[in-house]
């Protein structure tokens, strides 16, 4: 067997030709002429050149396209002393306001090259969207719900925060199907995390009824004014939002100056039955200015005078709602004291216009927002009688404690810097409120089976 194996192997060696040529190597195929032939075959070189041309054109035109898109966006900057906010405005601008159009700048610097204080910068919400995202605390209340209507109507996204202590779902129920409206049941005494462009801080029980019949509500009122304001200012600081505080004419107390200017420091009883509300609002103003000076938060302060209109609480103890409800129910209108104390009454739509003008403007305030038309309580009762029932009667009762004798705003500052003044007179606005009250009182009576 070994011999056979040796013979077969020798035969195979004889059959294989002996060659002196070099062994096969793949590198021998990579000849320049062959590569050139590959490129020219089937127009491959043409396609390569076209691709290079397209890529070069894209990189050359990219800076120009970026400038064009920035110009088309034209979102304004709002620059304050030490920080910058980028805000998104709605598709159509509000009449009466001119805004400065600029391109986006570096979010870490302002126009003069200074850095943000504390590293706080604007948080862009919904880049590519031109409408603002706004939170309204107390947005289910009387004034807040009208403000929400205006903001929604102009194209903004609105988040309402309300715990319904005095607010009513009925005031905003017509917005429930709107995709740009959101309602959160929350107490501003507790912190909340949101991303918004603006904060309208209206949350605070303001009705005298709660002071008179529920003394504990005064403590809650003070907590809302202090803790609620602190929480909303903290939110504004974290996200770079502009903050508007709705303060009150009550910060002037029982004024010794008439009419009251914003420079007047007030005449307030710090231990009276209404002090939790008065001093709470004064503290809220203090906190607001401290956050502005210390942390660079963009703030606005409005001091609101007596306001009336639809959606007021029917039995909230305010003089206009009291007179209207009593006259509709054919009850005597209650006048406290001799009825010679004066008030100024603005219609709610005028106030809402003033709040928006203040928020969109470039002035901090405080600003008086009220109607300088002055009426005694007896004069107001006569206007209500003319509007509702000429046979209505008046009932006098002892005056309440710390009730201001005179209240009239000086709105020259708002006229000059906000281009704002009230347009609706008492005799024009009162019938609109009366129609709303009639419908609600009628529905209440039907619900009670009367």
Task: Report what the structure shows.
- One of its GO terms (molecular function) is UDP-glucuronate decarboxylase activity.
- The protein has a domain at 77-308 and 345-372 and 405-424: NAD(P)-binding Rossmann-like Domain (Rossmann fold, 3-Layer(aba) Sandwich), CATH 3.40.50.
- It is 40% helix and 13% strand.
- By secondary structure, it is of the alpha/beta class.
- The termini are far apart.
Briefly say what this structure is.
It is a single-pass type II membrane protein. The chain has 450 residues and is α/β, with parallel strands linked by helices. The chain contains twelve helices and 15 strands.
CATH architecture of the domain at 77-308 and 345-372 and 405-424, please? 3-Layer(aba) Sandwich
The value of Rg in angstroms is 36 Å
In percent, how helical is the residue content? 40-55%
Give me the number of helical elements: 12
| Global outline | elongated
CATH superfamily of the domain at 77-308 and 345-372 and 405-424, please? NAD(P)-binding Rossmann-like Domain
Query: What is the ordering of alpha helices and beta strands?
Result: HHHEEEHEEEHHEHEEHEEEHEEHEHH
Topology:
Blueprint: H1 2-15, H2 32-40, H3 44-73, E1 77-79, E2 84-86, E3 133-137, H4 142-153, E4 157-162, E5 181-185, E6 198-201, H5 208-213, H6 215-239, E7 242-248, H7 275-295, E8 299-304, E9 307-308, H8 319-328, E10 333-336, E11 342-344, E12 346-347, H9 348-360, E13 367-369, E14 374-376, H10 377-387, E15 394-397, H11 412-418, H12 426-447
Parallel strand pairs: 3-4, 3-6, 4-5, 6-7, 7-8, 8-13, 9-12, 10-15
Antiparallel strand pairs: 1-2, 11-14
Helix pairs in contact: 4-9, 6-7, 8-10
EC number: 4.1.1.35
Cofactor: NAD(+)
Pathway: Nucleotide-sugar biosynthesis; UDP-alpha-D-xylose biosynthesis; UDP-alpha-D-xylose from UDP-alpha-D-glucuronate: step 1/1
């Amino acid at each position: 067997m070994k011999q056979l194996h040796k013979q077969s192997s020798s035969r195979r060696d004889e059959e294989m030709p002996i060659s002196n040529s070099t062994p096969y190597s793949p590198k021998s195929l990579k000849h320049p002429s062959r590569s050139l032939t590959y490129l020219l075959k089937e127009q491959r070189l043409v396609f390569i050149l076209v691709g290079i041309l397209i890529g070069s054109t894209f990189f050359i035109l990219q800076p120009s396209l970026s400038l064009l898109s920035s110009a088309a966006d034209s979102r304004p900057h709002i620059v304050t002393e030490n920080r910058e906010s980028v805000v998104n405005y709605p598709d159509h601008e509000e009449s009466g306001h001119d805004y400065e159009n600029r391109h986006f700048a570096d979010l870490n610097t302002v126009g003069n090259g200074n850095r943000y204080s504390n590293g706080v910068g604007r948080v862009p919400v919904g880049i590519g969207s031109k409408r603002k995202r706004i939170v309204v605390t107390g947005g289910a209340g009387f004034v807040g719900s009208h403000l929400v209507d205006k903001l929604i109507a102009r194209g903004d996204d609105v988040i309402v925060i309300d715990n319904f202590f005095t607010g009513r779902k009925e005031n905003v129920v017509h917005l429930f199907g709107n995709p740009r409206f959101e309602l959160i049941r929350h107490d501003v005494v507790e912190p909340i995390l949101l991303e918004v462009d603006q904060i309208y801080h209206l949350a605070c029980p303001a009705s005298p009824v709660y002071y008179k019949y529920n003394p504990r509500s005064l403590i809650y009122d003070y907590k809302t004014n202090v803790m609620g304001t602190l929480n909303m200012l903290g939110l504004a600081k974290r996200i770079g939002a502009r903050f508007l505080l709705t303060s009150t004419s009550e910060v002037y107390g029982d004024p010794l100056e008439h009419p009251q200017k914003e420079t007047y420091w007030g005449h307030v009883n710090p231990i009276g039955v209404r002090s939790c509300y008065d001093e709470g609002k004064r503290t809220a103003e203090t906190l607001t200015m401290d956050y502005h000076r210390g942390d660079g938060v963009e703030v606005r302060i409005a001091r609101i005078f007596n306001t009336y209109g639809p959606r007021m609480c029917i039995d909230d103890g305010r003089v206009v709602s009291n007179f209207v409800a009593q006259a509709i129910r054919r009850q005597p209108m209650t006048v406290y004291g001799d009825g010679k104390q004066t008030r100024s009454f603005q219609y709610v739509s005028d106030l809402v216009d003033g709040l928006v003008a203040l928020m969109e403007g470039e002035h901090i305030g405080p600003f008086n927002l009220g109607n300088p038309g002055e009426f005694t309580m007896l004069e107001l009762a006569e206007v209500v009688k003319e509007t509702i029932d000429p046979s209505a009667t008046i009932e006098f009762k002892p005056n309440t404690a710390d009730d201001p004798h005179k209240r009239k705003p000086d709105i020259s500052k708002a006229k000059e810097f906000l281009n704002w003044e009230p347009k609706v007179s008492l005799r024009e606005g009162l019938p609109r409120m009366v129609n709303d009250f009639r419908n609600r009182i009628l529905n209440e009576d039907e619900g009670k089976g009367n």
